[in-house]
Amino acid sequence: MSSQRIINLTFLLCSSAVIAFFILASGQEPPAVITQPAPIARLTHDPGNALRPAWSPDNRLIAFESNRDGAFQIYVMNADGSNQRALTAGANENRRPVWTPDGKSILYDSSDGAHQDIWIVHLASGVRKQLTRVEGLADYAALSPDGKQLVFYLYKDMTLNLWTMRADGRDAKPLTHDFADGRRKEPTIASRQPAWSADSQWLAYTGGDGKSIWVMRRDGTDARAIIADEETNRLPWFLPDGCVAFITEYVPPRYGGAWTNAWAYDLKTGARTLLYDLMSMQEPVAWNADNSKLVFASPRAGRFDLYLIDLNAPGGLDALRGTSHQEGVGAK
After folding, report:
1. Buried-most residue among 11, 146, 166, 281 (CB within 10 A)?
2. pLDDT tens, position by position, for the chain (332 residues)?
């Protein structure tokens, strides 16, 4: 190194030390480095596929399914993608997680290839319990906010129906009859858990045609379609104000591109309001409690991984519409 470069380096080091001395001597804090949150962050780097995210009621954790080690298992992680850990293991396919209202346990369905039933796993202890013992394929369970009633889909004899039972697994019985029939070329594979209203009195769900939105009381009465147009409407959930939110999918060949819109439907007035338009992701999408963040699965990096969009971050709406190229990385 030349003598001039040594002199310059010495000057810089000494100058930095002098500046630091005066800042500390004056009692002032060094200036903080302000960073803006990225509007979209990749949460998983899965060697398999990470799918079907579900937010915990307090928005601190995200449950999901992954086949990174063979069969699909239920995993949980912090909302920033850190501390990923498996809650289930073994040869069974364990899929479609959903939280209990108290945030202490996760419901899921488990299949050995011949039977598929609803199970529950306690987050802290890891203790698992089988809830259903039905002839057929049970999936997509959801526990009512009051913790008393469980609903789930059951596929049996080429038909799909909604069933209900007590939270402990007793008194299983159908809520619907002839909901969807494969012999009529109707979709007999559910796409999401039914959604409960906050007062545990109403259920919202996708209709048997796979493109309408329905509601009914918890006992199966007063079932009616609230959205039944020519579009593909799916995946309803209840908003804090009691409205039913849902998404509409627009796909080729009817449309030149593929996108989704999110809507809110007021059960009292029948008014329909657009929440977000031109969303670039497809189902399933998991919104947090105040709808400020959403997590979705995407194969943009090869296999399916989970990504988080923060609508409060600068560029959040652009990320929702797929026009943002600013991507952050969640904690590993």
Report:
1. 281
2. 444 443 343 333 344 433 333 333 445 555 444 455 689 999 999 899 999 999 999 999 999 999 999 999 999 999 999 999 999 999 999 999 999 999 999 999 999 998 999 999 999 999 999 999 988 999 999 999 999 999 999 999 999 999 999 999 999 999 999 899 999 988 898 988 999 999 999 999 999 999 999 999 999 999 999 999 989 999 999 999 999 999 999 988 888 888 999 999 999 999 999 999 999 876 678 999 999 999 999 998 889 999 999 999 999 999 999 865 455 556 65
Looking at the fold, whether 143 and 4 belong to one and the same domain comes out as: no
The tally of domains found in the chain comes to: 2
CA distance 267 to 225: 11
DSSP tag of 121: E
What pTM value is reported for the model? 0.85
Q: Are residues 116 and 259 in the same domain?
A: yes
- What the block records as the tokens of 129 is 């319990």
Does one domain contain both 30 and 42? no
Domain containing 6 equals 1-34
Q: What is the DSSP letter of 253?
A: T
Is the domain of 227 the same as that of 278?
A: yes
Q: What angle do CA 78, 123, 151 make, to 5 degrees?
A: 105
